[in-house]
Each structure stands twice: as structure tokens, then as C-alpha cells.
């Protein structure tokens, strides 16, 4: 008889006896024992065949065994059955164990086994059965994402703590899975709090003493438990008082006696734990009292050269920096010198450190998010509160949608159809107070009988069918001026918080990047190590050899109250080769989008730079843009930006800063170039202004620049600048060259808090009898909600260029769609050199659910435009996309919304067509070489509910609601792998997005027909990106018109 036949016979008997377990106790015990014996057989063939029989995807044997375990009363049988399940999911049982683990998680086996463990401990009937249960839970704990929540709801946290108390000194088979379970529970902030109250600190210290310092899996697991528990402040305090810090320092002092991978992991978890402890004052005192700084500094001196130890060295330097006393950032106050009196008091909100999903996002790897409990609370608290406007308040947006008005729609929704007289002498204002929101007039309304007498031409009778401009900064300009003159005139009309003294030369001359590919930086590991150690040594010294302040924005503002009068200009060309007094560099940042607060010379050619926080803030220091002059050519100048806040940066992964030379531009080589060497990013001793209770330090971005010319005037920037004045100047330029077959309107949506106009653009083709504008779909695009993400403006620039060009592809796009574009949602942040926020110290991309007309006018009225389109015009936008930049990832990718991947259970019950949101990313992937399809995601969490992407998807029913993310750095896929993204690439991405939108409708319909014809995709199954990309691609004729030659 074959082994398969024996297995089938035993399985059949098991299923037969499982129907009535009480009547077949002996038979069930015998069959269970035989099956367990076969799963643990020394005969590999027997074992593999038996386990495969239990782990088949469509098999219900695991369900049968689980049900039996809940009902059977015989402990011998239960032990055998539990042993079978453990063998199915044992780490050494093969790759297919994951199928069994997923099945058990789906069957909610965690609850079953936790209840059994609690019951066994209360009755104390079978130690072997308890051991099997704990072994199973040790595996489930690593796979069940809600394991901690389930254990807590079953009141099982103290139970597992009791198991550790009982078994920590036995070193038996149960201790390892108990530590795995404790590690999982310690990852959750709520279960950690329960453990701390139950006295886990004492237990874990005793466990460490019994496990000892000898490298083992148990020691590694125990240190990992320490790593997670020390995120709790109360645990840290008890741990310090118990003397555990001394034990950990003593253990780390033996780091050179460990070997292999175990050496690295033990050191890593020990350092994580010490870092968490040292974030508290009592922890830092404990480390210093046991000479911990000396032990750590000795590691710096003798750290192995292997690359894997670079992260350990960085963490050691971070701990030493935390323990350095009285090393404050050299500024009078960490509050930004740029202050603005808000019309109403803002509510303090938490700001994610990444654009939309990152999520990314800002927390360090030691921060923990209680995802399980957040989801539970969400079910209780439901969705965030949202503001719903009445239809009468939406009538103000009628003028922005004049091309889509019809009698029927206006009458059915009670929109006022009475004619409005021309109002060129004043603005229509929603509020009487302070005119924080105002809309310039757009059209003169005609009487009803005239306005709607000709459906195809009624709206063009009141406006020029080529363009209509209502931006005062653009309207006041006269044709025929040079671009430089136009830019200076526009920049002079911009209202800023800090008075500007000039316009930046690169912005004035519309500088971009060279077309050549620029390779990513190869990080010099030894140099970076040396810089980290030098930073620590400098922090340990009480005095510095040189500390000369060469630029101080606070002093300039206090001593010279400059009021901007007249026209801003730039005289950089006249200043070339003029040597300033002294031998140090000169700096300036008082121009649009500029950011530099203070410069301190610490060496003959080394400078510490401090960036300006966002307006009304003490945080968000990443973006920089400043002028440097008075340099000597071809000598290395070191720049250390010492108040960076992000926990990591692409500066560590190949990104170089940008350099612009005015001399090179005069010589005929204009453009921003990637420059710099010895680039690295690490923590320094300066304590940050983080609101977190635990102490954190700032990070340093350091790089070395060799300037090409003596006494040149150069500009350094984090990324290619794209200012508010640049946007307005480009709108003026597009006006001058507009073709007659393009409808292009540029209007002022509203005024920002500081009374700068926020443009909204409309692009489409003229109306015709066979192609009515009212029949076209709406595409709604936004960008630059985060001012530091200048790459999003370059992408939007590429999209707008494509839509306004005289090509067949662009003409087809205009004939299919009406494009509504808000190209700069946060002009105040852009103008004032902010990185994340505007004037309110709030992330505007977290205000979409309930924006304030007074504090967030751009979000409030952009949402109002969408609201009007959906509720009044009854036209749901076909696509919504918000353009962003990403500081931690490479490539380009999209985030979308899938109800099946929502955090909310009611969303997952909805029926959806996956192609609706998966098609655009796939088309982009086929058009753009730097587009990374695997990075696209369509899930979203509760804390993303207030973002543009999710709000538009949920409130307005836009199925294709996206965030486009683009790296500041470059690509690690495709032909441009290993190279920076430049302005040509960025505009090319925007161009390709326009092409993709052109192809989208036909492509979606084509694929749906193919899928339905061949039944490729089950309607209950969401196709993956890979499944879609494997389908045959349609040849879009529009692609040949793309101007994206290099990307």
C-alpha cells in the first residue's frame, strides 16, 4: 500500500470520527496518534507527503482539527492534534507552511489557542499539551497582524507574562516560543503598558541574568524584547532603577567576542535598547555613571570595516550625542524668525513627515504604531468629521465652470440664473471681514434667452475662445517684455513674510538642468565614518577652535527692518569677480523660496549651516536654497547643515545637492548641476525641538563643494527650485504663444492668507456641434501642497506644456476632457521657503476633510470646485491626481484607492472594478522608464482619510483618485538606473502623464473587452499589478507625440 493511500485512509477515518468525537474517543485517539507520528516521522518521504496532505490549499483538514481541539476532552488526543498543527507550521517544515499559517490566521486560530492556554494554566492538566499550544502560538504571533489585540481582548497578556516567569530559568523547549510571543506583545503600545504594570521589568531582568551573555537565539530574542519594551517610558525608568543598563553596557563591551551574524544582531538590539533608554534623562545619567560613553567610544575606534557595521557605528554615535550635555543649537530661539499673525487661532495637528503615504512616514524605525488598536477605535469612532456645504454656498463657483453650464443643470439645482452685471471695479467676496477670500470676476453673464440660445457656442459668446486671464499679476503685464523683466515685475508684486532684497538669478533666467545624465553619488563609507566620529568628538569638546558667525538672518531682520519698495532686481552679473572683504564665504537667502537662517564658520573652509523652520513653526527643516559668493576656485568647502529633522535622507543613498554658477551661465553654460563629494547624513549632538517626550537630536547633512570660478556667485539648493513667480511668469508666457484651437483660462481661485493669488487653470478644446464641452469628462489636477516638493511643480509644468502644445495627441486630449488644474496649492509656503507647511504650521494635505475658509483658503475652495462639479453639475471627475515629491524612495509611482484594501470594513463589502484604478499606473509604467509599478499601492489607513486622495475618493466618488509620488533623487530601475532625475525627466514624466490620460479611456474599454471575452479575471478577484502588466499592451498612437526622449 502506498504512503498516499495510507494517508487518505487515516484522514478519512479522522473526518469520520470527528463527526461524533464523544462516541469514538479511543478510535480518534489512535488515528490522531498515527497521523502525528507520520508528521514527525524520520522517513522524510512519509513526513513530507503527510504534511502536504494537511497543507493543501483547498483542504479543510486544518478546520476539522481546529474544531476537534475545541470539542475533544481527551488530553492525549488533543496533544496529538496540536502536534499535527505545529508540524504543519513548523519553521523546518518547508515553504508551503505559509499556506497553513495563512489558513489558521483566516480561521481565527489565535483566539482558539489563546483560550486553550488560559484554560490549561487554570487546570494544569497536561504540560505536553500546553507546550504544543505555546509552540503553535509562537508561529502564529509572527504572522497574525492582530495577534496583540486578540490576546489583550482575551485578557491573555498576564498569562504569557506568567509563562515567562515560570520558564525563564528552565531553558526548556517552551522558552523560545514564549519569547517570540513576548516580542510580538511588546511591539504593541497597549499590551506593553499592561506588561509594565504587571511587573515585566523585573522578570525580563531575571531572564537576562539566567540566559547570560553567551550568544544564542534566546539572547537575541530577549534583546529584541528589550528593544520594543524600552519604547515605553515607564519600563525604561524601572529598567534603569533595576540596574539593567549596566548589564547591557557590560554585554556590549564584549562585542568583539561574538561571531558571525549573531554578533551583529546582538549588538544591534543592544544599541536600540540603549538608544531608547538614553532618550530619557535618567537613562543618560545611568549610562554616564557606568562609563557607557567610554565603552561606546571605544567601539567607534575599533569598529570593523565591513559595511554591515556602518549602521551600528551610526547608532553608537547617536547614543553618545544624546548623552552630551548642554549642546544647544546656536540660535536665540528655535522658533522661526518668520512669524505671521493668523486671523483665527489654529488647532495643533500632528504632521506626517512624508507627502501622502509614506507614509512616509516620519517616524524613526524605533517608533511604533498601534495599527490593531487604531483600527478597533476606527470602527467605534467611524470616519473623521467632514464639512458639508449647502448648494447655495456653492454658487460662487459657477463662473469657474462656465463652459459646463446648461439650463437644466442650473434650474434643477436652484442655482441663481439671474444675470450678474460686470464687476470689474471690485471683487466678489464671500466674507465681509478682511477679504481673506475673494474671487475676481470671470465673465459677464448674459440674459437667459441669449446665454443659452446656442448650446454649442453660448459660453464662448461671453469669453474669448482662446484665453481669459483674471490674475492681476499677469493682467498687469504688457506683451513684448523680456522674460527677465516679466519675472522681476511679478516677483516684486509677491507678498512675503520676510522682506526680500533681490530675485535669484536662476529663477529670473528660468534655469533648468543640463540634458546629460548625472550619476548618483558613490558614498565614501570611510569618509562618512570619519565625519560621524569627528562630529562626536567635537561635541565632547567644551570649546571649538573657530566659531565665527558669517550670516545671521535674525540679526538682519532685527537691525535692518527692510520694507520692500520698488522693483526687485538681480545684479549678479555686475558683481562677478568682485572680491568681498575678508577670506570667508558670503551668504544670502532673502529671495523667493530661499531658506538659510544662520552660518557659522568652524574651520578655514568649513561652515555649519542652520535652516529656517517653516513660518510660525520650530520644525520642518529640510529644504534649502541660498546664495554663496566670495569663494576661491577648486578648493574644497565643507557645508554642514546641522538642523535637519528627517530620520534618513537620500543624501545617504546617492543624491547630490544642486549647484548653479552665474559665471558659467554668462559663459553660455546655464543650468543647475549635481555637485558635491563626501556626502553623508547622520545624527549630531544638538537636541531637536521635537514635541516627542523622548529626547531626540537633529541630523547633519554634510557635503563638500569645489566651486568652478574665483569670486563667482553661486546658488545651492536641495532640489530644482520652482517659485510662485515662475509659475505666474510661465502663465504669462503661455498666454503669448497660445494657439487659436486651445481654450485656456487662468483665473484667481482665491487669495491666500497673505493675499497672494492662487491660480486655477482650465484647458480644453473649443466647443463644437459634434463635440460638446458638456459631454466631456473632467480631469482635476493639483500640485505643490507641500512647498518643499518642487519636483511636483516641474512635473505639473510638463503636463501643462503637453496640454498646451500644438500636437495631434494633445489636441485629442483637449477634445476628450476638460482639465481643471490648481498648480500650486500652497503658494505661501513656496514663497517663504517652507518645507512642509504654509503660514498656519499645518500640513494642508491633512485638512481636506474639514478645511477652513479662513485658515486654508486654497484647500477650502479647491474642494469647493470639486463639490460644485459633482453636486451641481452632476459630473464626477474622471481622474483626480495630486502631484507630490518623495524624500525617501527613488523612481516615480502612484498611490490610489481600492475599497478592498481599505482599513474600514464597510468599504471592503463594496463591489469594485479593479481596472478602474489599476489601468493608469500600468499605462504610466509602459510610457515612463522610471515608473516603478511595484511601488504603487492602493490601500490606505485611517490617518490618510484627511488627505486629498482619500477625501476625493470617498466624498466625491472619484474612482481614479491618485497621488503621484516622484523621488527627489533618481532611479534604481530601468535605463536611468543609477542616475539623478533632472528637469528634463521631471517634465517628461508630466508629459507622459498627459499621454496616459489621453490613452486611459480607450485602453480601459479595450482591456475590459479582452478580459470579459477570455474570462481572465474573476470579478471577485482584484488583479495584481503583475497580472495586468502581463496582459498584451495596446499600441497607443499618442505615444509617438510624447516629447519625453530621455526618460
TrEMBL record:
<feature type="region of interest" description="Disordered">
    <location>
        <begin position="1028"/>
        <end position="1047"/>
    </location>
</feature>
<protein>
    <recommendedName>
        <fullName>tubulin-glutamate carboxypeptidase</fullName>
        <ecNumber>3.4.17.24</ecNumber>
    </recommendedName>
</protein>
<dbReference type="Pfam" id="PF25571">
    <property type="entry name" value="TPR_CCP1_N"/>
</dbReference>
<feature type="domain" description="Peptidase M14">
    <location>
        <begin position="720"/>
        <end position="1004"/>
    </location>
</feature>
<comment type="similarity">
    <text>Belongs to the peptidase M14 family.</text>
</comment>
<dbReference type="GO" id="GO:0004181">
    <property type="term" value="F:metallocarboxypeptidase activity"/>
</dbReference>
<dbReference type="GO" id="GO:0008270">
    <property type="term" value="F:zinc ion binding"/>
</dbReference>
<feature type="active site" description="Proton donor/acceptor">
    <location>
        <position position="965"/>
    </location>
</feature>
<dbReference type="Pfam" id="PF00246">
    <property type="entry name" value="Peptidase_M14"/>
</dbReference>
<feature type="compositionally biased region" description="Acidic residues">
    <location>
        <begin position="1030"/>
        <end position="1047"/>
    </location>
</feature>
<dbReference type="InterPro" id="IPR011989">
    <property type="entry name" value="ARM-like"/>
</dbReference>
<feature type="region of interest" description="Disordered">
    <location>
        <begin position="343"/>
        <end position="377"/>
    </location>
</feature>
<dbReference type="GO" id="GO:0006508">
    <property type="term" value="P:proteolysis"/>
</dbReference>
<dbReference type="Pfam" id="PF18027">
    <property type="entry name" value="Pepdidase_M14_N"/>
</dbReference>
<dbReference type="InterPro" id="IPR000834">
    <property type="entry name" value="Peptidase_M14"/>
</dbReference>
<dbReference type="InterPro" id="IPR016024">
    <property type="entry name" value="ARM-type_fold"/>
</dbReference>
<feature type="compositionally biased region" description="Acidic residues">
    <location>
        <begin position="350"/>
        <end position="375"/>
    </location>
</feature>
<dbReference type="InterPro" id="IPR050821">
    <property type="entry name" value="Cytosolic_carboxypeptidase"/>
</dbReference>
<dbReference type="InterPro" id="IPR040626">
    <property type="entry name" value="Pepdidase_M14_N"/>
</dbReference>
Amino acid at each position: 500500500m502506498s504512503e498516499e493511500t495510507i494517508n487518505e485512509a487515516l484522514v478519512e477515518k479522522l473526518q469520520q470520527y470527528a463527526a461524533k468525537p464523544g462516541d469514538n474517543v479511543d478510535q480518534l485517539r489512535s488515528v490522531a496518534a498515527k497521523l502525528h507520528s507520520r508528521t514527525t516521522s524520520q522517513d522524510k518521504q512519509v513526513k513530507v507527503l503527510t504534511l502536504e496532505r494537511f497543507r493543501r490549499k483547498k483542504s479543510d483538514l486544518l478546520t476539522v482539527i481546529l474544531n476537534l481541539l475545541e470539542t475533544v476532552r481527551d488530553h492525549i488526543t488533543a496533544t496529538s492534534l496540536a502536534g499535527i498543527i505545529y508540524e504543519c507550521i513548523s519553521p523546518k517544515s518547508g515553504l508551503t507552511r505559509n499556506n497553513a499559517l495563512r489558513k489558521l490566521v483566516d480561521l481565527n486560530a489565535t483566539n482558539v489557542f489563546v483560550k486553550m492556554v488560559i484554560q490549561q494554566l487554570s487546570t494544569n492538566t497536561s504540560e505536553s499539551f500546553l507546550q504544543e499550544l505555546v509552540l503553535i502560538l509562537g508561529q502564529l504571533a509572527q504572522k497574525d497582524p492582530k495577534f496583540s489585540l486578540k490576546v489583550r481582548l482575551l485578557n491573555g497578556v498576564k498569562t504569557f507574562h506568567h509563562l515567562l516567569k515560570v520558564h525563564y530559568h528552565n531553558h526548556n523547549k517552551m522558552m523560545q516560543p514564549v519569547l517570540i510571543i513576548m516580542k510580538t506583545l511588546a511591539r504593541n503600545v497597549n499590551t506593553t503598558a499592561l506588561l509594565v504594570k504587571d511587573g515585566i521589568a523585573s522578570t525580563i531582568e531575571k531572564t537576562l541574568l539566567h540566559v547570560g551573555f553567551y550568544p544564542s537565539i534566546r539572547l537575541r530574542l530577549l534583546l529584541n524584547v528589550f528593544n520594543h519594551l524600552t519604547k515605553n517610558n515607564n519600563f525604561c525608568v524601572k529598567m534603569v532603577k533595576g540596574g539593567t543598563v549596566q548589564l547591557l553596557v557590560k554585554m556590549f563591551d564584549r562585542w568583539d567576542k561574538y561571531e558571525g551574524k549573531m554578533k551583529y544582531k546582538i549588538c544591534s538590539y543592544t544599541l536600540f535598547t540603549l538608544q531608547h533608554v538614553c532618550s530619557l534623562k535618567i537613562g543618560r545619567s545611568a549610562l554616564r555613571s557606568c562609563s557607557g560613553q567610554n565603552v561606546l567610544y571605544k567601539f567607534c575606534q575599533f569598529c570593523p570595516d565591513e559595511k554591515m557595521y556602518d549602521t551600528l557605528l551610526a547608532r553608537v554615535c547617536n547614543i553618545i550625542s544624546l548623552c552630551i550635555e548642554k549642546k544647544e543649537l546656536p540660535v536665540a530661539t528655535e522658533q522661526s524668525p518668520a512669524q505671521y499673525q493668523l486671523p483665527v487661532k489654529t488647532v495643533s495637528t500632528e504632521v506626517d513627515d512624508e507627502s501622502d503615504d509614506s507614509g512616509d512616514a516620519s517616524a524613526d524605525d524605533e517608533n511604533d504604531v498601534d495599527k490593531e488598536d487604531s483600527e478597533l477605535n476606527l470602527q467605534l469612532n467611524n470616519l473623521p468629521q467632514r464639512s458639508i456645504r449647502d448648494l447655495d454656498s456653492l454658487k460662487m463657483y459657477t463662473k469657474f465652470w462656465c463652459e459646463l453650464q446648461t439650463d437644466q443643470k442650473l434650474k434643477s439645482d436652484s442655482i441663481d440664473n439671474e444675470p450678474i452685471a460686470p464687476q470689474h471695479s471690485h471683487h466678489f467676496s464671500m466674507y465681509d471681514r478682511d477679504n481673506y477670500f475673494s474671487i475676481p470676476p470671470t465673465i459677464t453673464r448674459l440674459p437667459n434667452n441669449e446665454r443659452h440660445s446656442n448650446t454649442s457656442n453660448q459660453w464662448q459668446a461671453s469669453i474669448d475662445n482662446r484665453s481669459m486671464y483674471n490674475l492681476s499679476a499677469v493682467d498687469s503685464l504688457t506683451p513684448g517684455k523680456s522674460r527677465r523683466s516679466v519675472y522681476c515685475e511679478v516677483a516684486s508684486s509677491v507678498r512675503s513674510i520676510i522682506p526680500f532684497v533681490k530675485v535669484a538669478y536662476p529663477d529670473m533666467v528660468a534655469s533648468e538642468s543640463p540634458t546629460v545624465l548625472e550619476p548618483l553619488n558613490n558614498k565614501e563609507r570611510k569618509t562618512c565614518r570619519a565625519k560621524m566620529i569627528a562630529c562626536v568628538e567635537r561635541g565632547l569638546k567644551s570649546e571649538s577652535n573657530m566659531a565665527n558667525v558669517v550670516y545671521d538672518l535674525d540679526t538682519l531682520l532685527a537691525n535692518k527692518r527692510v520694507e520692500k519698495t520698488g522693483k526687485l532686481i538681480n545684479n549678479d552679473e555686475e558683481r562677478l569677480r568682485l572680491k568681498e572683504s575678508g577670506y570667508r564665504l558670503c551668504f544670502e537667502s532673502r529671495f523667493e523660496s530661499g531658506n538659510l537662517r544662520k552660518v557659522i564658520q568652524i574651520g578655514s573652509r568649513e561652515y555649519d549651516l542652520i535652516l529656517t523652520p517653516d513660518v510660525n513653526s520650530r520644525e520642518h527643516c529640510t529644504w534649502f536654497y541660498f546664495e554663496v559668493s566670495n569663494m576661491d576656485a577648486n578648493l574644497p568647502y565643507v557645508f554642514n547643515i546641522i538642523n535637519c529633522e528627517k530620520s534618513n535622507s537620500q543624501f545617504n543613498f546617492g543624491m547630490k545637492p544642486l549647484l548653479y554658477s552665474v559665471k558659467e551661465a554668462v559663459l553660455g553654460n546655464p543650468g543647475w548641476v549635481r555637485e558635491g563629494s563626501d556626502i553623508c547624513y547622520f545624527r549630531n549632538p544638538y537636541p531637536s525641538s521635537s514635541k516627542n517626550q523622548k529626547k531626540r537630536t537633529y541630523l547633519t547633512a554634510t557635503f563638500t563643494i569645489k566651486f568652478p570660478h574665483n569670486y563667482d556667485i553661486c546658488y545651492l539648493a536641495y532640489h530644482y527650485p520652482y517659485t510662485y513667480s515662475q509659475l505666474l511668469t510661465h502663465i504669462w508666457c503661455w498666454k503669448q504663444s497660445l494657439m487659436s484651437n486651445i481654450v485656456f483660462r487662468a483665473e484667481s481661485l482665491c487669495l491666500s492668507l497673505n493675499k497672494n493669488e492662487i491660480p486655477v487653470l482650465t484647458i480644453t478644446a473649443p466647443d463644437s456641434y459634434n463635440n460638446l464641452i458638456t459631454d466631456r469628462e473632467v480631469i482635476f489636477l493639483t500640485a505643490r501642497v507641500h512647498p518643499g516638493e518642487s519636483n511636483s511643480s516641474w512635473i505639473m509644468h510638463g503636463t501643462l506644456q503637453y496640454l498646451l502644445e500644438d500636437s495631434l495627441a494633445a489636441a485629442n486630449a483637449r477634445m476628450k476632457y476638460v482639465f481643471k488644474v490648481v498648480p500650486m496649492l500652497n503658494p505661501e509656503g513656496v514663497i517663504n521657503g517652507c518645507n512642509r507647511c504654509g503660514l498656519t504650521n499645518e500640513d494642508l494635505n491633512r485638512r481636506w476633510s474639514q478645511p477652513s475658509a479662513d485658515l486654508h483658503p486654497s484647500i477650502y475652495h479647491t474642494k469647493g470646485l470639486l463639490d460644485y462639479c459633482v453636486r451641481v453639475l452632476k459630473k464626477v471627475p474622471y481622474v483626480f491626481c495630486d502631484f507630490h515629491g518623495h524624500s525617501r524612495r527613488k523612481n516615480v509611482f502612484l498611490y490610489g484607492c481600492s475599497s478592498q484594501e481599505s482599513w474600514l470594513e464597510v468599504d471592503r463589502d463594496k463591489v469594485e472594478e479593479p481596472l478602474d484604478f489599476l489601468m493608469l499606473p500600468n499605462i504610466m509604467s509602459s510610457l515612463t522608464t522610471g515608473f516603478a509599478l511595484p511601488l504603487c499601492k492602493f490601500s490606505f489607513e485611517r490617518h490618510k482619510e484627511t488627505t486629498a486622495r482619500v477625501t476625493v475618493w470617498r466624498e466625491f466618488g472619484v474612482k481614479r483618485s491618485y497621488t503621484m509620488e516622484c523621488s527627489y533623487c533618481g532611479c534604481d530601475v530601468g535605463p536611468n538606473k543609477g542616475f539623478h532625475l533632472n528637469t528634463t525627466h521631471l517634465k517628461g514624466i508630466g508629459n507622459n502623464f498627459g499621454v496616459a490620460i489621453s490613452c486611459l479611456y480607450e485602453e480601459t474599454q479595450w482591456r475590459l473587452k479582452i478580459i470579459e471575452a477570455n474570462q481572465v479575471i474573476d470579478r471577485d478577484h482584484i488583479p495584481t499589478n503583475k497580472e495586468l502588466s502581463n496582459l498584451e499592451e495596446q499600441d497607443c498612437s499618442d505615444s509617438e507625440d510624447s516629447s519625453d526622449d530621455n526618460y
